[in-house]
Write a structure and sequence with these properties.
The chain is an alpha+beta fold. Helix content is about 30%, strand content about 25%.
Length: about 100
């Protein structure tokens, strides 16, 4: 988990209740990063807020809403790399499973 602070809590989607929305100045912890599509922006899964099917299509918070210390930016950079590799491995595994079904 990588600590951060919310710097932008504007433009809350109607699908997300106030109780599940980030608040400017509050501390949060990033537990996973992902590039969301089709926007192709970096986004975070936070330990403090669990977005569910009730908030769909919103599943993550845009990275631009948060600030990090220098040390935590280095940790975040490594997490982004690790999550990206994991995401690619998952995509490859899905492709292999689809090919196995066809074969």
């Amino acid at each position: 988990m990588i600590p951060c602070i919310c710097i932008d809590d504007t433009h809350k989607p109607n699908e997300i209740p106030n109780s599940k929305w980030v608040k400017k100045g509050e501390k949060y912890h990033v537990i996973y990063t992902i590039t969301v599509l089709p926007q192709r922006i970096l986004a975070f899964h936070l330990s403090e807020i669990e977005l569910t099917d009730n908030e769909y299509p919103y599943e993550y918070f845009a990275a631009s809403r948060f600030a990090f210390t220098k040390d935590n930016l280095d940790l975040l950079n490594q997490m982004i790399k690790d999550c990206s590799e994991s995401e690619q491995s998952t995509i490859e595994l899905i492709k292999q499973c689809q090919h196995a079904e066809l074969g």
